[in-house]
Amino acid sequence: MGAVADDGRWTLRLAMGLLAGAAGLYGLHKLVTVKRRQQHRAGGDRQSEKNPVYRVTGLKVTDDDQGIADIQQGFLLTKSPEVLEQQRLQAVLGLLKGTSDVSIREQALVTLGNSAAFSANQDLLRNLDGLSIIANCLFDEVTSVRVKALNVMNNLSMNVANQKELKIWIPGILDTLRTTVLNSELQVASLRVLTNFSVTNNYHYMMTNYIPHFLKLLVEGTEKIKVQILKVLINLSTNPDLCHDLLSAQVPLSFLVLFDSCINKEVLLRLLILVANLKENLNLLQNSVQFEYGVDSLHAVLFGNPTPFSHKLAKLILYQDNEVKQQIARIITKSY
After folding, report:
1. Distance CA 36, CA 203 (A)
2. Could you give the CA distance from residue 21 to residue 8 in angstroms, rounded to a whole number?
3. How many other CB atoms are there within 10 angstroms of residue 256's CB atom?
4. Which pLDDT value is given to residue 52?
5. Who contacts 194 (Cβ-Cβ below 8 Å, separation ≥6)?
6. Is residue 320 within 8 Å of 328, Cβ to Cβ?
7. Secondary structure element (H or E) that encloses residue 71, with its range
8. Which pLDDT tens digit goes with each residue over 291-319?
9. Could you report the per-residue pLDDT of 61-86, keeping only the tens digit for each?
């Protein structure tokens, strides 16, 4: 019994030491990253690992603005050959599972989020049955714990194998998005995870019923919410099988207000990409079964005849940005 108790105390000390050293690990890896970038510049062959937020040809987007995932909550999101050892990850997972102390749970989730930024640890956490331990924190009564759990899932869901196991929590994340306070960090964190799950068509069917709510959030949310919602909608719009689900969804009356030159360019550009994707999918499906759309549907607002949207688009032609003009051209030149 003494040996078992000693092992338990050793595991606790190890886990607490790792949590206390999280800031130090961040600083160390940050320093290593800066030095490596300096070496790349000195050698003249710098290779950027930064991915675009979106592509303008109808391709999907990931929540990967910094090359791995978004930088938030002090997360370390820089690729590195160093990974946390299996023993330490086990200790932190055990601590997360075994304590009710909010501050310790939060620190444990931040540490796991840091480690999940590395692909090797994404696999390791899955093999250690860590996905369910982390996902169970989505139901924590403390909002800050739920946000941090979603941030960990954001990194873990960059891994296709992890997505297969994490998909059972998609309905819960969608429900959180629908019921939580508008523009909250909980909504933003939920949308980041859903963006990663919408990169492939595999889980689109799980989000179809929430399309009207996505459109509602798009109109009512802050710029941050609008950008995150549009990432999901753009990914859904690349799937021809969802074209009619998107276009038949009821859209708020104020939707067209978004198509204005005074709207943030990041929002406006994504809106136009969404419309262009839908227009192209309509072209692909023009010989398929004909659908009837309601007067308050997205189809009626965008492609009805006549439509106020065409007047909005005509005014945007004068917008002084080549990317915006490129998307307008995609919409105008596509007929159906």
Report:
1. 38
2. 20
3. 17
4. 30
5. 170, 173, 174, 177, 207, 232
6. no
7. none
8. 889 999 999 999 987 788 999 999 998 89
9. 456 543 333 323 333 343 343 444 68
